């Protein structure tokens, strides 16, 4: 009796593995095993496939459990006798913000993704039948070219590399990762990346072994499935699961006698890629050097005779805290980004062949709508604008930037932004010129690649390099026959459901390409429809609802964003603020929903804009929180609670009953609670798959934040857009609270759903400090981030004598800091980051001292490393019983002196770290701003989130940071001259 053929896919209850099982069930003539470590999830996945008429088998398999692997192998041996297809898909990856030390991440990731895979192969390879196919799922990160170290690449790429050599290398990586020296040894800073490089290297070794195997025609390949929308990519991939499963399925079903691919690296489009990495050519080119440009053009002319694709990507951008005058920034930025680009085009455009494609990399900052001046926008947007006109305008901007009058003339206050507006305007001019060019079908476009994780974005972008490169690559490979006439959005399909815009391309509406023609957009931006809607006007809501009903019949996405917030210095009585804020932000939202929810179509998505202020934990009262958190909370009960707050706010008794002193906060808690109720209602709705979520978009640079938010509008819009475009039948998020980074947060039990550890520490108690240091040493072995935040301050009306205030304040705020540092500094690991908060206030720079002698003393102590003098003088002057501290030049504030001392101490510690054998320990001192805390009697204009921003930034400075180091950082993240000022304008 002929045994049926058998296919096994590891880690296949979801994502790419699930897609591979689904494909094999349709295309493979045999039994397909869906495996998962969790039995419940595995069986649920089988049930989903059963609904599609597919019949996979299920067996539990945890690849990281030797017993589970052995049991599965024995099961297969006894029941089927052998395997015809094995897809090694199971793997893990830590998120970018994972709190685990990198050494731990490396050990766990390589144990699962590499060593466990070896164990699976050792158990199942003996069961492979002749003509079996093995697929190891790798990644773009599995490219050997991703390994920075040249010697490592040579070793890993050695065609005679053995399994023993490879395992030794991987164990060395883990050891170095634990010691924090892996990058010095040439490894990348990604445990997942190393694991996939190892899987690809392993595949080549296994391929050689199969060539010598007595069983006929066993073929193994390693596959990059693409950047896929899965849990591993936090649902942020570009490809659907179906697309990601295609290449692995193709490799699994290679026919008998296949000669290629064998032992090869397959890309998600099924193409064979050199596993050592792509092989581009290199030539030096400095676009800001006319000789370099000319030499490159001549080289291309002699060597190749012409160019088919030109991508103008080179550009620079000054950081926000750059110290160069804005006029200088403008001159340099425009010289490189605009005039340098023109020079490149002048040199290379004559070499463009027919059907060439040119891509000018622009930016969201390159939207003409970013230019404030209406006359300027009209001029720049003129379809007949000439190159001479454009260069004159840009030169005028540079001149006005140097004079400090550029904003008055209508320009934005960003040299980079102006340069990209200029690049986009230039592209339109060049497009017109190409239309009249005798060479056929040369097409040029300008592209916004997205906010990408690069050095230019200080590694803070939202998109990967792969995602950012997608649209420029698309524009570079436009097929022949595309005739440019309009700026059109390129749209990417998200799971085959929605079309999601990613940026501009130019072509006619009559072009013939394989994909549907996207809608036009104007050069000033997209062309949404407009309809008046005042959410605080019942008639306006009714009119809008009727319009939608008559014009479109229904709604697929509803984003409830409209809201108001009073400023901190608002003069209206709090009762009035509460009434107006709740009426608009909460009750009007209910009215909108009542009017528009009947028009929601199946699979509609609703997004309610909440806030970090909408966290339930922002409600001080325990009983109130219990009421809000009750999963059975009804809409009527919620409305009663909101009305009670307004009544109590008018009476001035709201704080007594557990409400916060912020009407905006209460309104957003109400919106979040309402969202949970609405989701429960949608679950019972006859219309299929309507989902509502509430989202905190981040602290964004808008009018509402008085333009003090650290996030751009693009960053703030990301999470709401993500929720608005959730694909059909997604299981999660539903009724959830989403943070601006797209993470689901526990709204009830926050804050942030984070789980920090706790340990008692009294900085004014030496024994407590010693105990804490010993605990850290024993439990963790070291520290990577130390923030010295603990401090006290006496109120201005404190009855204690000033001498006593001085003694206590300096003991806690200064001498205790020294004690903490003495205990914990020995535990700092290489690349550790230290910062203090708060370590500065506006009046506390050294220049604040009344006496020149005292200012000079502080500076002299810092320069001479004379900490003893600093200690003695600070203590002596501040303990003056007769009030002589003022005569000696000291401030009349013990708190201020303590913070000046801490800042001086930081500079001393910085010099000591420069001489420390541990690599790259960085310390800074920080002014977090005047924050709404107990220390300021809740009079500060900044929120806790705003105050925590700069210290967090300093605590997370990346390895190899050159600046800031030993610097005073303002709450805006600007570096300030501690000695001479000036302090930034708040």
Q: What does this entry look like structurally?
A:
With 986 residues, this protein is an alpha/beta fold. The protein folds into four domains: 6-96 and 117-141 and 202-273, NAD(P)-binding Rossmann-like Domain (Rossmann fold, 3-Layer(aba) Sandwich); 290-521, Rossmann fold, CATH 3.40.50; 538-745, 3-Layer(aba) Sandwich (Rossmann fold); 766-976, NAD(P)-binding Rossmann-like Domain (Rossmann fold). Helices cover 41% and strands 13% of the residues. Strand 17, helix 20 and strand 18 form a beta-alpha-beta unit. The longest helix has 23 residues, at 102-124. Residues 483-525, 837-871 and 873-881 have low confidence and may be disordered.
Top keywords for this entry?
five-stranded mixed sheet; NADP; 986 residues; 4 domains; Rossmann fold; globular; NAD(P)-bd_dom_sf; eight-stranded mixed sheet; alpha/beta
């Amino acid at each position: 009796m002929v045994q049926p053929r058998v296919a096994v896919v590891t880690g296949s209850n979801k994502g790419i593995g699930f897609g591979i099982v689904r494909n094999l069930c349709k295309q493979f003539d045999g039994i397909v095993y869906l495996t998962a470590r969790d039995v419940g999830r595995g069986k649920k996945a089988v049930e989903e496939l059963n609904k599609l008429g597919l019949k996979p088998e299920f067996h539990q398999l945890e690849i990281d459990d030797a017993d589970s692997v052995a049991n599965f192998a024995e099961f297969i041996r006894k029941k089927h006798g052998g395997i015809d297809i094995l897809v090694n898909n199971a793997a893990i990856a830590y998120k970018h913000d994972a709190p685990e030390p990198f050494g731990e991440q490396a050990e766990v990731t390589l144990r699962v993704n590499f060593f466990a895979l070896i164990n699976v192969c050792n158990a199942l390879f003996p069961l492979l039948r002749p003509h079996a196919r093995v697929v190891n799922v790798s990644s773009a990160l599995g490219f050997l070219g991703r390994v920075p170290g040249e010697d490592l690449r040579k070793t890993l790429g050695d065609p005679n590399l053995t399994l023993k050599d490879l395992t030794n290398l991987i164990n060395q990586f883990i050891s170095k990762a634990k010691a924090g020296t892996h990058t010095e040894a040439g490894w990348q800073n990604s445990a997942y990346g190393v694991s996939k490089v190892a899987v690809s290297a392993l595949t080549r070794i296994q391929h050689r072994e199969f060539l010598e195997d007595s069983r006929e025609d066993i073929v193994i390949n390693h596959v990059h499935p693409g950047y896929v929308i899965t849990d591993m990519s936090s649902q942020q991939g570009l490809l659907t699961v179906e697309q990601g499963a295609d290449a692995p399925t193709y490799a699994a079903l290679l026919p008998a006698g296949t000669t290629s691919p064998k032992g090869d690296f397959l890309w998600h489009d099924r193409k064979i890629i050199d596993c050592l990495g792509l092989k581009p050519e290199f030539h030096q080119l400095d676009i800001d050097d006319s000789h370099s440009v000319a030499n490159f053009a001549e080289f291309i002319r002699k060597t190749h005779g012409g160019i088919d694709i030109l991508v103008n990507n080179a550009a620079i951008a000054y950081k926000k805290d750059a110290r160069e005058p804005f006029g200088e920034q403008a001159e340099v930025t425009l010289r490189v980004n605009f005039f340098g680009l023109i020079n490149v085009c002048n040199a290379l455009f004559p070499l463009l062949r027919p059907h060439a494609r040119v891509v000018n990399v622009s930016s969201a900052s390159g939207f003409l709508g970013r230019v404030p001046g209406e006359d300027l926008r009209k001029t720049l947007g003129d379809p007949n604008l000439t190159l001479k006109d454009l260069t004159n305008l840009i030169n005028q901007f540079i001149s006005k930037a140097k004079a400090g009058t550029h904003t008055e003339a209508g320009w934005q206050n960003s040299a980079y932004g102006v340069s990209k507006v200029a690049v986009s305007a230039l592209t339109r001019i060049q497009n017109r010129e190409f239309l009249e060019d005798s060479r056929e079908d040369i097409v040029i476009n300008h592209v916004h690649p997205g906010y990408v994780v690069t050095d230019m974005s200080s590694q803070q972008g939202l998109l990967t390099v792969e995602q950012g490169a997608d649209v420029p690559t698309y524009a570079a490979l436009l097929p022949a026959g595309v005739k440019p006439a309009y700026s059109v959005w390129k749209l990417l399909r998200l799971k085959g459901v929605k079309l999601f815009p990613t940026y501009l391309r130019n072509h006619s509406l009559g072009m013939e390409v394989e994909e549907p023609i996207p809608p036009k957009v104007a050069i000033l931006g997209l062309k949404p429809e407009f309809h008046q809607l005042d959410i605080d006007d019942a008639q306006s809501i009714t009119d809008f609802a009727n319009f939608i009903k008559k014009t479109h019949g229904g709604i697929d996405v509803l984003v409830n964003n409209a809201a108001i917030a009073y400023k901190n210095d608002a003069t209206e009585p709090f009762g009035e603020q509460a009434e107006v804020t709740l009426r608009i932000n909460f009750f009007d939202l209910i009215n909108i929903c009542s009017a528009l929810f009947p028009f929601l179509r199946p699979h509609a998505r609703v997004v309610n804009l909440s806030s970090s202020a909408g966290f339930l934990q922002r409600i001080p009262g325990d009983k109130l929180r219990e009421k809000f958190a009750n999963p059975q909370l009804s809409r009527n009960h919620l409305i009663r609670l909101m009305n009670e707050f307004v009544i109590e706010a008018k009476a001035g008794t709201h704080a007594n009953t557990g409400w916060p002193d912020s009407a905006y906060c209460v309104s957003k808690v109400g919106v979040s609670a309402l969202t949970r109720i609405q989701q429960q209602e949608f679950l019972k709705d006859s219309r299929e798959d309507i989902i509502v979520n509430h989202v905190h978009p981040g602290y964004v640079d808008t009018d509402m934040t008085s333009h003090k938010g650290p996030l751009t509008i693009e960053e703030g819009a990301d999470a709401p857009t993500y929720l608005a475009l959730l694909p059909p039948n997604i299981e999660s998020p539903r009724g959830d609270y989403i943070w601006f980074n797209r993470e689901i947060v526990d709204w009830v039990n926050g804050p942030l759903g984070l789980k920090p550890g706790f340990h008692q520490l009294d900085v004014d108690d030496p024994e407590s400090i010693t105990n804490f240091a010993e605990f850290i040493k024993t439990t963790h072995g070291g520290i990577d981030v130390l923030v010295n935040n603990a401090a006290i301050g006496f109120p201005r009306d404190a009855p204690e004598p000033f001498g006593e205030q001085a003694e206590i304040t300096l003991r806690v705020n200064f001498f205790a800091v020294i004690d903490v540092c003495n205990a914990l500094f020995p535990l700092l690991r290489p690349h550790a980051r230290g910062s203090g908060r708060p370590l500065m206030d506006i009046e506390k720079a050294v220049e604040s001292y009344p006496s020149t002698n005292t200012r000079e003393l502080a500076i002299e102590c810092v320069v001479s490393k004379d900490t003893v003098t600093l200690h003695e003088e600070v203590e002596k002057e501040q303990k003056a019983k007769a009030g002589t501290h003022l005569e000696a030049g000291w401030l009349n504030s013990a708190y201020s002196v303590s913070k000046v001392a801490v800042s001086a101490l930081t500079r001393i510690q910085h010099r000591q770290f420069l001489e420390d054998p541990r690599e790259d320990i960085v310390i800074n001192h920080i002014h977090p701003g005047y924050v709404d805390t107990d220390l300021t009697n809740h009079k500060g204009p900044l929120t806790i989130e705003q105050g925590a921003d700069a210290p967090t930034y300093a605590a997370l400075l990346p390895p190899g940071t050159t600046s800031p180091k030993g610097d005073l950082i303002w709450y805006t993240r600007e570096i300030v001259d501690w000695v001479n000022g000036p302090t930034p304008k708040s």
